[in-house]
């Protein structure tokens, strides 16, 4: 039997997965066992766990009414999610945007995830701050208020639960923070390259095991460092504000000199301060919110490593046009003449687009800027049914411009007379703001 929905797909392995959990001897033992599995098997188990929970609540519904305004959409979303009970956190969602007539059949839900995520990682809003690194990824803002982060954790947990990949730009350190994975000096290079180089140099100066007290003092001693760091508060964008202040890395650290004998401890404490201590209240709240939706019994945070968790949350980062084309259905209205030619033009144009335009087109048709983890074959509608990208060729009498139906991942494409006209039409929709219920 070929499964048609996520639930059917995972139900095929449900009995085996449950039996495996029982044989493993409970949650703790199962976590250790499944953490050692290859990612495809972990992912399959994860989908099975989600399917079990969704089956219990599929007949319920929770309503979320919100705005698109970047300044308020995060706080409105967090407030609504924090008002939900543990059971309600797993109900199917029904999204409505203020002042818009759209009825949510899945497309608005995907768009809601994108709108909230965009605002959440906007550096002007002060929840996350961009690191000085080529990746332009985001860390938790060191001056952010922890009061919002449990709700943000619920939002991220719900995205994982729903299988909606979101454009979360979180630094790898944040995923380690969520999983409680230890840090090391190598992580610092993804935060601040200059600090990383300094700490690596200090590491190289620690005493060898054959050191004798008669050996002269070396470079570390001459630096006159102590077990403290100088920090400055940051504004929403991460720029320094106010005066700097001293923070001890250990009790009375400002009075303890760093030497070649204790430099390894200094580096370890510095890394811990940089990667966790300064934002630990926000991390604790974020993890708490994530576990509100994904409790330990679902094993996710125990069996996935930080790279796998990022892959689950964000999906594939590149748009594979060949894969997109492979899993595309084509239908045509009776009035459309010679649809094969325009389909060929369409894919030629998409293949020639820069990545940002391809992403805009994907968002216009599906409501999401991310490709599912398993590629375009895994596109779904709101109830988890496989719902492939579809091109419906229509006559110019039926439509003048391409029209998207995000709830069914379908693009109605007029049968233009030539490739240039089609190019201009696609260029127009990928150049404009494609959010909002105005073209579908």
UniProtKB/TrEMBL annotation:
Pathway(s) served = Protein modification; protein ubiquitination
Q: Which GO terms describe its cellular component?
A: cytoplasm
Tell me the ranges covered by the HECT domain, including all copies: 85-440
Q: Which domain of life is it from?
A: Eukaryota
Repeat recorded as keyword: no
Protein name listed in UniProt: HECT-type E3 ubiquitin transferase
One GO BP: ubiquitin-dependent protein catabolic process
E.C. number: 2.3.2.26
Q: Which organism is it from?
A: Aphanomyces astaci (Crayfish plague agent)
Q: Which UniProt keywords apply?
A: Transferase, Ubl conjugation pathway
Q: Which residues are annotated as active site? A: 407
Reactions this protein catalyses: S-ubiquitinyl-[E2 ubiquitin-conjugating enzyme]-L-cysteine + [acceptor protein]-L-lysine = [E2 ubiquitin-conjugating enzyme]-L-cysteine + N(6)-ubiquitinyl-[acceptor protein]-L-lysine
Question: What GO molecular-function term can you cite, just one?
Answer: ubiquitin protein ligase activity
